[in-house]
Amino acid sequence: MARIAVVGSINMDLVTRTPRRPRPGETVLGTAFDTVPGGKGANQAIAARRAGAAVDFVGAVGTDVFGAELRKVLEDNEIGTAGLRTVEGSSGTATIVVDEAGENTIIVVGGANAELSGLTDGDRALVAEADILLCQLEIPVETVLGAARCARDRGTLVLLNPSPARSLPPELWEAVDIAVVNEGEAAQLDSELRAVPHVLTTRGGAGASYRGPEGELTHPGMRVEVVDTTGAGDTFTGALAAHWHEGPAAALAWACTAGALATTVVGASASIPTAAAIERALAE
Ligand code: RIB
To answer: Please, which pLDDT band fits residue 269 given cuts at 50, 70 and 90?
Structure first.
């Protein structure tokens, strides 16, 4: 079983469903509203756990009503929370609008995630004991860099999902072993990604591709009824990390299948499939 340390964000997603997204200045009538735990870090942690890995989470929640619920979703998924702090103030939130086609727009407010500055000795030990460190960019870049330095020094692989994309210090890119990007990020980060040994690019309904020392691989998209794409990329990334030790081709198949299944249910963390569901779909 792979051991994964996630150093990342956790948000409460405020999800509104609507036939179509409003234009600037326009009001439209929505059809449903829900609060669903999310955040790229937490989604990827849950995806890796459900795909079969042992997972520890390093992050922060606030003292507001969402904080306890967010902590509980990690505990309910049997994810280690020794590295989860509670900081004064609001938890991270994401205001998400999902239209009839399952496409979304998202506004993230960092809240407690922005307060995750620096790692404790306990956090460093979790990174050192892991096979893979999994990071995204919804927490301060300095914290991601600190975790990546620790991983590199202790022989832990660094998997970075550079989302939302932003400019990063070259030292961080030098520490990255595996990157997962969508097509937009792949274009935006083209020169940075050239130095990364293993790069996986997700292509929505068209599946995903890999390039690295093993050559180039592609995995086709799975036919599914899409209701909400939120968190599908996170599910891909978590499942990939959980199965990376089986080699890029097997990990890519797990990741694509998990990501596709995640689009068939509304809500980021709520839609993440179990290992049994992924295995069933892989066998079909
Ligand atoms: O990738 C999906 C996630 O992005 C959502 O869960 C939301 O919280 C934002 O972080």
So the answer is: confident
Domain residue limits, the chain? 3-9+39-90+112-283
pLDDT of amino acid 101 = 86
Helix axes 121-129, 141-154, angle to 10 degrees: 50
Would you call 64 a catalytic residue per the annotation? no
- Whole-prediction pTM: 0.96
Q: Is the pLDDT of residue 169 over 90?
A: yes
- Angle separating helix axes 232-243 and 248-262, nearest 10 degrees: 150
Mean pLDDT of the chain: 96
230 within 8 A of 268, measured Cβ to Cβ: yes
Best residue for ligand 1 mutational test, from 6, 40, 93 (most atoms within 8 Å of Cβ): 40
The span from the CA of 62 to the CA of 40, in Å, is 17
Whole-angstrom Cα distance, residue 241 to residue 131? Answer: 9
CATH topology assigned to domain 3-9+39-90+112-283:
UDP-N-acetylmuramoyl-L-alanine:D-glutamate ligase (3.40.1190)
With a cut of 90, say whether residue 194 has pLDDT above it.
Answer: yes
Asked if pLDDT for residue 237 goes beyond 90, the answer is yes
CA distances from 114 to 12, 34, 36, 108, 196 (A): 14, 24, 20, 11, 27
Give dist(CA 132, CA 245) in Å, integer.
10
Nearest CA owner, ligand 1 atom 1:
231
- Taking the centre of ligand 1 as the mean of its atom positions, its distance from the CA of residue 43, in whole angstroms, is 8
Check pLDDT > 90 for residue 38: yes
